[in-house]
Amino acid sequence: MSQVYFDHNSTTALKTEVLEAMLPFLANQHGNATSRHSFGRAARAAVEHAREQVASAVGAYATQIVFTASGTEANNFAVHGICSNLDKGQILTSAIEHPCVSRPALALQARGWKAHSIKVDANCNINMAHLEKLLITPTNLVSVMLANNETGVIQDIAKVAELAREHKAYVHTDAVQALGKIPVDFFALNVHAMTISSHKIGGPLGAGALVLDKRIDIQPLLYGGGQEKGLRSGTENVAAIVGFGVACELAVKYLTAFDMHTENLRKHLETGLSKLNAVIFGQNGLRIPNTTFFAFPNMDGETLVTALDKKGFAVASGSACSSDSDKPSHVLLAMGVEEDLARGAVRVSFSASNTIEQVHHFLTAIESELKRLKNLTAVAA
Ligand code: PLP
């Protein structure tokens, strides 16, 4: 039985064109991009070409891209790097951020900063009134994600940025789950810094980037050889960066096709899930097209995910994005979902490679697993 992969918000398969572009740099083109000889110059040229490709995918200039090893690193870099040049003050992160944004803020809190979380409503949208209230206290940094990894809900970042800038705060957005799924334009979002990651868009693991407003004063996380204009020391991972560049180009090229295809799959999925009485989270919010986050009352999410895996479907449970995997999703709790229902959460995230047939088979599998698991519970009771 071949496995069907419905977990593309976790990571994606490497695209063929990406692998082809990377292979020479994993084989005989092994130059260090800081070396002056021909091998080094070839590596440097490849990195700079990739920088152009990444910048162009997000409507930025190549000089604004700082390559990192992951989205996690870029988020940590944004929070620590921006704050370390400022006097201790307030940091605001939304209640639904990925831990690689909220935890750096908490780490700063332990060093005397004040970290507060911005509330969201039942649809997973930022509570702008709460943000405005929090901004009355002088604030250094506001960080709100563009698209949530669990619900897929998209935030009005330009509005967040407008409010933050009115209060002289810096603004960062984590766009890791938005790139390749919706148009992402750094200037339109009006932020000072934005995070993206390669392996979420058909690129390799080991590459990410922070897109920066050049006027921002930011401190590096890593010191050493002074790569990336001193902002991110460490020998460049040339193959991964090259792959990231190609993946960015492809993500933009196929954005409309991805959007139409995955939205159609999601429509079928959600129609089927609703017939089975699932609760679909964030359904009334504006969402990236490929993501459905749902639960069945009185059905444990981990149990359902394991049962579906045995039936050949790879999906995520609500707690899959966190190492605290016994806890219900902090995103759902922030939306006011009851803990019991939140424990049932399951996420499906599609890519262009998924098909309608897979969705129909999945719905059939869910229906039979629900019956089987409910019978088991009834027997055990
Ligand atoms: N931000 C969001 C919204 C994510 O979903 C993830 C990964 O799941 C990350 C950041 C971390 O990115 P990376 O896996 O590249 O470290």
Please tell me about this protein's structure:
The radius of gyration is 21 Å and the shape is globular. With 381 residues, the chain is α/β, with parallel strands linked by helices. The protein has a seven-stranded mixed sheet with strand order 2-8-7-6-5-3-4, sandwiched between helices. It has 13 helices and 13 strands. The structure holds pyridoxal-5'-phosphate. Pyridoxal-5'-phosphate is lined by residues 70-72, 75, 98, 100, 145, 149, 174, 176-177, 197, 199, 208, 321. Pyridoxal-5'-phosphate binds at residues 70-72, 75, 98, 100, 145, 149, 174, 176-177, 197, 199, 208, 321.
Quick summary:
The protein is an alpha/beta fold. The chain has helices at residues 16-26, 38-57, 71-83, 99-109, 128-134, 157-166, 186-189, 238-253, 255-275, 301-310, 330-334, 339-342, 356-380; strands at 4-5, 65-68, 90-94, 114-118, 139-143, 170-174, 193-197, 208-212, 279-280, 291-295, 313-314, 316-317, 346-349.
Q: What is the gyration radius calculated from CA atoms?
A: 21 Å
Alpha-carbon distance between the termini? Answer: 33 Å
Which small compounds were modeled alongside the protein?
pyridoxal-5'-phosphate
Strand content: 5-15%
Low-confidence stretches: none
What's the CATH H-level homologous superfamily of the largest domain?
Type I PLP-dependent aspartate aminotransferase-like (Major domain)
Give a quick account of the main beta sheet: strands, pairing sense, barrel closure: 7 strands, mixed
CATH architecture of the largest domain, please? 3-Layer(aba) Sandwich
User: What is the spatial order of strands in the main beta sheet?
Assistant: 2-8-7-6-5-3-4
Give the class-level CATH name of the largest domain. Answer: Alpha Beta
Q: Helix coverage percent of residues?
A: 40-55%
Order of helices and strands: EHHEHEHEHEHEHEEHHEEHEEHHEH
User: What is the structural class?
Assistant: alpha/beta
CATH T-level fold name of the largest domain: Aspartate Aminotransferase, domain 2
Write down the overall mean pLDDT. Answer: 95
